[in-house]
Structure formats: C-alpha cells, structure tokens
Amino acid sequence: MKNNEKKIDVSLGFDLGIGSVGWAIINNYNNEVLELGSRLFNEPQLALDRREKRSIRRSLRRKAYKNLQFKKLVWKYKELFGINLSSLEEVDEIYLKMSKLHSNILHLKEKALKEKITSEEMIWILHDYLQNRGFFYEVIDEESENKKNIEVTIFDTKKYKYPTLFQKEFYDKHGWYNGIESFENVKFSHKHWKEEISYLFLIQEPQYSKDKLENFKKDFFKLYDFIRNYEFGPGSINSYSPYGIYEYDSNNKLIQKYNYIWEKTMGKCSIFSDEYCAPKKSPSAELYDLLSNFNNLRHSKANDWYLTVEDKKDIINKWLEKIVSFDNDSSNKKIKMPILNYKSILKYLKDAKPEIADLLKEEDFKNNDLEITKLESLFQFLLIFKKNNANLKNLNVNNIFNFAKKLDLIFDDLVKFKDIDKRYLKVNKKFIDFFKEYFSNQEDIQTTILEIIKNSKFKTIKNHSISLKAIYLVLDDLLNTNKNLSNFKFDKSFKLYNAILENEKLLQEKGLLNSKIKSKYLDSSFLKDLVAAPAVKTSIAETIKVFNQIIKEYKNKYNISKIGIEMPRDNNSDEEKLKITTQNKLNKKRFELISKRIFEYLGKQYDINEFNLKTKQKLLLYFQQDGYDPYINQKLDLFKVINDSSYSEIDHIIPYSISYNDAITNKILVLKSTNQNKGNRIPREYLTEKQFEKLIDFCNQKFTSTKDNPFFDAKSKEAENKKRNLLHELITEDDEIEFAARNLNDTRYANKMFLEKLNNYSEINDKPFNVVTIRGKFTSLMRKLGGLSPKDRNHFSHHAIDASILAIVANNYNPRAQKLAFKDPKYLVKNHKIFDFETGEYICEFKDLNLNAIKISNIIKNSMTEVFDEKKNLTKTKSDIIDKIRYSRKLIKDYNIELFNDTIYSLREDSNGDYRKIERISVFDISPKIILDEEQKELVLMNKSHPQEFAKINKIFFEYNEILFKENNSKKITSKDILNRYTFDLFKNFKEELCKDPNKYEEEAKAFLNNEEKRALIIKNENGFSYVKKIKIFGDKIDINNVSFIKNQDNKSFKQSFNWVALLLYKDDKNKYTYLPVNAKIYHFNNNKQINFKDESIYLQKELKKQKKLNKIPLDNKIIDVFYKGTMLIDCSEIIKDKQLIYISGATNGRIEYKYCSHLEKDHDSNKIKRNLKTVNSLLTTYEKIDKSVLG
C-alpha cells in the first residue's frame, strides 16, 4: 500500500480453543470479512500425566543416586565386612551372586532377624532396605475427603513387630508379596522399617567390630533417612530443574528465584506485579470476597437499594456472635457454620423498603445463581479456638480484620508446608505470643496448634487474583463504602490508588517496571508466570503469535480499532466436576423413572437410550409439567410427543435472543402451534390476562412444592427458577443490560490477565483499540440466527467463521458501554439513558448499547451468508468466505520426550529360534481358548515351567466352561464369566478359611472380584491357597534391530516403539526419497534446545551409519531436509481445495502418516478417522514442503 493511501479501519476476532485459534479481520465500514484463518496445534498433555512421568523419572534418579552412595559406603567399610573389592562395580556382582543363591530375599530377611548371616548377605539386604524406605511423615491431604472411601491401615506393630514378618506370613498364604500394600490397604512407615533395620544390626552385631559398626550405622542411616524438602521442590543450586526454585538469570547464572516451590504456582497479583497472589481461602481473602459480594448485591424490584455500612457490620457481628457465644458445655451439639445467603440478607432489604416488603423475594436478587462467599477458613479457625476455651468475647467487626491478618500468617505456613512436623515447628515458634492473647494455659495452646496443623478442611491449593497487600488496603473501604475494587484503583481518595502509584514509582526506580516501554509487538513473556492450565497458556501464546503476525503483515494496510475474543474454557474445577457428576447421577435416575412412567401410561416398553437428546429433553419437560402445555392448559399426547417430532416443540420461556439462557429452567414443552403463536415474546406479552392468571395458578400448583415431583432438582431450585421465568413481568432495559453483561463478562483470572496485556499494548503504542470478550453461547446464537452453515466440528473452518462473528460483534458493540462488560451491573437507567449508579456518570444511551442479538445477527446474515434454497429461503456461509480461509499448523519441536513406549517387555527364544515378546495377561482377561486349546496352550509359559499348577488352572477352566455352556449355550463365555462363577463357589465351600465373616461369603466374594487390585484365581492346595493374577504367554516375534534392550537386566527385557522428534530426509541407493527418524537409536538427547538436525555430526556416528545401511542409504548421501510433526505440504495440482494442504502427523515402518489441514477425514462405514499412510517417495511425488507463516 502506498503511504498516501488511507488505512482501512478494521476489527479483529479471535476464537481461542484448546487446540486452535480462529482469527478474522473485518472491515468496520461494511462488516466485510477481509481475511480469516484457523491456526491449529496439539492439545498439551494433561498436567497429571506429566507430573506422574516426572515423578517416575525422579524416583529412578533418586534410586540410582542412593545406589551409588551405598556402593561408596560398602567400599569405605570393606574391612568391616571382610570383603575384597577392587572397584565399585564389584558391589553389583555381590547383588547378582546373592540373587542367584536366594530365590526370594524375603526368606533371608526373616532369617537375619533371628540369626547370623554372611557379610555379603547383609550388604544385599541393606541395599534392598534402601530401595524401599516407607512413608516418612504424616501429610495433610485436603482432597482426601473427595477420594474414594478406602480404609488404609497403618502397619500394626503389636501383632507382627516388623514389616518383613507381616510380608512373610502373607507370602506363605498367597505365594507373592509385591503389591501387598494395595492388596491389604496397609502402609509401612519409614519408622517401621528403621526399627526393623536397627534390630537386624543388633542381631548381627556380635560378628563385627563394635566401633566400626557404629560408624557404619551412622553413615548408613544418614543415607537411609535423607529426604528432599518438598517445599523447595526438585533440583538445587548445583543441579537445575525447571520445576524447582532455581532459575538462570540474564547472565546464565543459576540463582535462587523463589523461597518456596509454591510461589512458582501462585501467580502474581493483578494490581501489584511484584506481589504473589493471596491463597484464595485465607481468612482475609474470604472477608474481601464477602464484602465485595455485599457491595455488589442488587435486587430487581429495588434497583436503588444496597446494603448500608451498618447492615454489613450487623451481618458480620451476628455471624461472629453465633460462634463466640456458643457454650461448649451446654450440649453435645457441634457448632455449625452460620449461614450467609440471600434469604438472610432479604431481611435488610425489607427493613429498608417496608412499603414494598411483600413484593420482595429471595429469587429476585440479581445474579442469585452465584453463591455468597462462605467464611470457611475463618470458621475453622474460630471453631478450633472456641473448642479449646479461647477467650473470644471481644471479637467483633471492629477488630476482625486485625485478627484475620494473624490467621493469614498461620495459613501461609499451612500453604507452604504439608507435613505436620514442619507445620508444628513453624506455628509453635512464630505465633505463640498471638495464642497467649486468647488462651490462659499452655495445654490449650498446644491442643489448638495441633488441631490447626492437622485440619484437612483448610483449602490451601487455589489462589486469589490479587495479593494480601491489595486486600489489606481495601478491606476497610469495602466495609465503610459501597464501592468495589474498580473504584479503589482509580479514585485518588482511596488508599489503594496511592499505594499503586508508590509501587509503580518504586518498581521504576529498580528498573522492574517495563510495561510502559513501547514494543512493536505484543510480548508473551508474561505467560511464564501466568497461573493457568497449560492448554489455556498454549492457546494464548498462539493467539499472540497470530496477533503479532497480523501487525507485521498488515501494519500499512489496516488500522485496528476493535477486538472481539472468545476465550478457551479452563479444565473443569473440582467443584464443577462434582456438579457434573451429581447432575449425571440425577439425570440417570430421572430417565430410569421416565422409562417406568412411559410404560405405565402407554403399556409399551421404550429404550430411552435410543432416543435423541431432544426427545429426552421433551420427555423430562413433559413429566416436569405433569403432561400439560402450561400456556393453554391443555394435556399433551405422550405417544405423539415420543413418535411425532412435529407435534410438540421446546420453547424458550424468555426468548433466547433476549436472555441467551439455554438452561432447562428457561424451557417448557408446548404444542407446535403454541410455540409459533408465542413467537419472540415472553409469556406475559403473549397471554391474555385470564390466560396469565391460569398460568399463575398452574405454576403455584406444579412448581411451588417439588418434594413430590422427582423430575425437578430441589437443590438447584429448578422449579422456582422456572416459575420465575414463566411469570416474568415485561422485559425492562435493566433486564436487557444484565443479560448483555452476563454474555460479555469473563471473570477468569487468565483471561483478565490476557485482556490487561492487550489493553496495555494498546495504550503504550498509541493504538486505541477496544477489547470485548464474548461468551461461547452468544457466538453460537449468532451463528444460528445469522443463517450460517451448521458447525461441522470435523472441519476446522468453523474456528475462522466463529472469529468472524466475534469481530462483527466487537465492531457493532458501542465501546462506551464496554464498562458494563467488565464491571458488576451497578447502573441506573433513566429516560432510556444509562448512568453509573455510584458516580452518576453518563455511559451511553440504551439504544447505543448495541448488543441486540437480532440486529447483529442480521448484519452477520447480510455480510456472511448466501441463499442456497430460494423456495425455503435457506442460507449458508458464503463460498467466497470459505475459500478465503487460511490454515496453519504449529510445528512440534519438543525434545523433552519419552524415548520409548513406557512398557517394558521380557523376551524369550522359542523352539524355532525366534525371539518372542512375553506378555503378562490378567487371568480374568485371557482368552479361554489359550487355556483350553491343545495348540494354543503351548503359548503359555507356565505349561512348561509349572505343568502341575497349569493343569489345575486348565481343569478349573474346563469344568466351569462346561457348566456355563450347558446353562446358556448361546452366550460367548469369557474368562471373567468362568472365574466369577468359580470364585463364588470357592468362597461358599471354604468360607471359614477365606472369609472374615463366613455368613457373608457372597458379599465378600463379590467385593473380592470387584477389587481389581485384589482379584485373582485362587487355587486350593495342600498348604492352603495359591493366587494367580497374571499368566505369561509368548507374544509376537520381535525384530531385535528395532527394540532397545535393558542392559542392567542382562538384555532379557526390552522397550519397543522408539519415539521420534524429527525425520531426516535422504535419497536411497535408487535415488528415491526415504527417511531416518531422529530417536534414541541415533541421537543422544540432552538439554540443548537449539539443535540443528541437518548437521550429521551431532548424531551417534556408528548408529547413524548402521541405520543408513539398513535403509540402503549411501553413506556419502547428506540430509536433504528435516520434517517435524506439523510440517505442512501442498499439492497445487489437487482440484479439491480441502485436499491441497496436508501436515505430517506420524511416521512408522518407512511410511509417513499425514492428515489434512482443513478437516478430519473419516471412514464412511466406521465413522473413525482415516489413517493416511504413504512412503515418503510416493508422498513427495505429488506434494512439496511449504513454509507458511502462523496465518497460513
């Protein structure tokens, strides 16, 4: 573009997903879609999976370290043991020698607790103890209440004295003992094992020099007792770990950046960037949230009402009084947490508005679906104080903030330290004077401290969005005014405003405030400290890349004035997961009951699982409404509801285009004609006065008391909310603003931080664009009302289309009204104008709010759709917009990968001289044919190694297979069927030996079979019972050139499936393209992230030559190119546009797997994603590599 040409004003749209970013640029003048695309990437691995694998790696490193230190210890004391050693490696030979002499170390350990053993046996046993040290201390697990109620028993020393004796008895009974902890739900502590070792030393002491043995014991226990301080995380000043408290500074020097590992996950305060976020459940943070709730309370019938300072003080004082005044000696009742809810607050509203008290109802509080903050941590502290005779009589609202500050410091130690011993040392040392203010004797203080540090109800994991420093500055103002954080940040009369200025000045002096420095592009470095799910951080990072590329490519062409964003959803919180689980259980019960009712009404059995979702919802609504169309008070025909889709329809009570509410509480089942007549109106507008009076009667009968109606969820107030929607008075401007704000306001921490960075960039670089966040359900509504093609999730164009919608919404939303999207809805509407309720500031005219769904959807329809069926007036997304869509794929250059598949296999040479993989299969999952068939059972190793035991298994399978076949010869019989039946019979016949309570043998047999940790094939023998859990069989033949042998297991086991990070493109001896995967065969992986894979000198030369020979690549041939997962290729001659662009998704057995960039190709018959595989030579005859920008 020439410099004298005027830039076009545009709006951007970004649709952030978990594995995608849709982007679009639209012309502000006519809403034309100018550019759009979909940026795609792989969803990050779950944090849980990554943590588990890190934990395994660290465990292996720690064992290797302890093993080395123990070897050095044996070397140091070789004279004590009377052994000749010339190298440390000879200690391994001792282990090997002992393992050949003793088939089971358990027998030797038992012997060592009774009599003298040799020095070499002693060394082997001590090495074994060092590998299994037990749990070290009691850890508070605040999530334990949500886990399965499995009773775990700490090892009982009264009965067995030492763990080995318990294990030996178990082994004698079952024939195995690995996994005993999970089988018996028992835990051995470090203390238990240490006592056993000390006793072992006592028994063996007479044969050694006493002084030297004492020195050895000290050195051994120093090694045995060593543990890392968990609060400092992994790594040290000498050994870097990306997950520890040490980081490299700008000079590449390793320094301590954090005091505790928890600081790394706490995130920084959104107000004071040098402060950490407060723990979400610290007492002061709870008080902050509660007072914010109070100041934001509004009622739809009294919009000018708010809680006064006296009201707030009275509520808090009464809450405290219920705890403080409780008499510990008066009854056996426990102190319950006082309830703070909308019902308790309604009293204050009625007192303030006596003239309309009868009209004021709890359900008419705005945003009443949001719970008022519970002071859970404060209650737990007060409960413990009160139980232990603390003097709290002077505690009230005037001093609660100072009291809470002290509790915050204690809570901080609960956050930092999880083990009880450390918690006790910290709290007892630092806060003893504080406790003395409230307790008269030392015993009560100690009891209080112990109960605090052991309390699992303190929730220490989640973080607030602001720091305790910010909270302390605003608590008084929250109590004594009716304003909120937004006011305090920007109003000079408040402490927070001045503190922010002082902090910024201080940070500038230290050179730490760089947010005001102009930058050409949006900086993504803030993501490093952002506390958010990896998927969200990845999505934001890719969006920043796209945004910066748009700036780069179009800086001379477009002027960005508005941005519309839809953010990705975080993974469900524990609370949300619980709600989902509870709802699923409720739905299951509902639909089971619906099936019964349908049978009762129609005399016909229907399988409700075969109904589509819409029919299921219709049936639920039908029974909620007792079968009536409530608008016309007419009974609906259940048979037609099920079988005739055109007979009835689901109506949104308050139209979706107004409320954007798709919840079940805003839906009702009506006749199709009723729905058509009602149109885009609420019931009050649609019905006559008499009809509305009948609707009121209907609601009072059906939706008031729902105890007898199992189709409603009483806890979530489904019936009450549905009744409120049905009887809603005319929609006011206040209602419409509230509906709009709900669809724009996004309060998630990560999203706020991203928006703040965008706004900072806009301000600093003099690019005054406005950013609006839009919720997904509103985007979905616009797609539907705008007449765009239905979303096909198998085609990635939908990300770009949604981004175009977001850009159009942003363009047609008045920026002056934007504050309604980011502030709580405290506004006043007068004469169709919107004012800030607190300041009286004029915001905009109501008509300028411009978030009218119909208006925006019409704009979308005009600019983005075309008619494809004139008779039916059906529209679809314009073809020229679809053709404009650009696709790009993120390259996967992750060098921190698993080198192989996790599974370790053993191998044996079969009778034909072939190497075969040995597979261990659960006896419940194995095919009966392998046990029963004469040819197949030759695959079973036990058939040759333990033929008598296998004969017993074969006999059981044969007998019970016959029994089950006679009972039901049409059913396919599995091993699980055979063993379930056999186990029940065994428990019946040997109930005295197998059962704790012989009278409940059926229950105990069932529990045994349902416990996957315990269940096994139990075989009766002369000495008792033997247990078989898994059977080894010969598996597939293996190519020894394509596996990695485990050297320290004497090459008797291996790992399969080498994982690769890149593909090296070569020409073979026939001048055809081929590739070598970069994996652990040819490359030694390290921490280097700047790898030039095209340089052959970086590889293991011997192995590289070997692989070249195996793949018939001349040794002189050099690497032509390097492909990664995500590398894009194009076939310009392909007629079908969707098949022009592909990307590499995998590689196996000399072939490359690829997928299309624009869509997922599925098999028509199975509906599974098709695997496209070609040799690299075949692929490159039609496709060529293409380097695309992040825009595509």
From TrEMBL:
Enzymatic class: hydrolase
PROSITE patterns according to UniProt: HNH_CAS9 (PS51749)
InterPro entries assigned to the protein according to its UniProt record, in alphabetical order: Cas9, HNH_CAS9, HNH_nuc, RNaseH_sf, RuvC_III
Named cofactor requirement(s): Mg(2+)
Keyword terms of this UniProt record: Antiviral defense, DNA-binding, Endonuclease, Hydrolase, Magnesium, Manganese, Metal-binding, Nuclease, RNA-binding
Domain notes: Has 2 endonuclease domains. The discontinuous RuvC-like domain cleaves the target DNA noncomplementary to crRNA while the HNH nuclease domain cleaves the target DNA complementary to crRNA.
Function: CRISPR (clustered regularly interspaced short palindromic repeat) is an adaptive immune system that provides protection against mobile genetic elements (viruses, transposable elements and conjugative plasmids). CRISPR clusters contain spacers, sequences complementary to antecedent mobile elements, and target invading nucleic acids. CRISPR clusters are transcribed and processed into CRISPR RNA (crRNA). In type II CRISPR systems correct processing of pre-crRNA requires a trans-encoded small RNA (tracrRNA), endogenous ribonuclease 3 (rnc) and this protein.
Protein name: CRISPR-associated endonuclease Cas9
Native organism: Metamycoplasma phocicerebrale
UniProt gene name: cas9
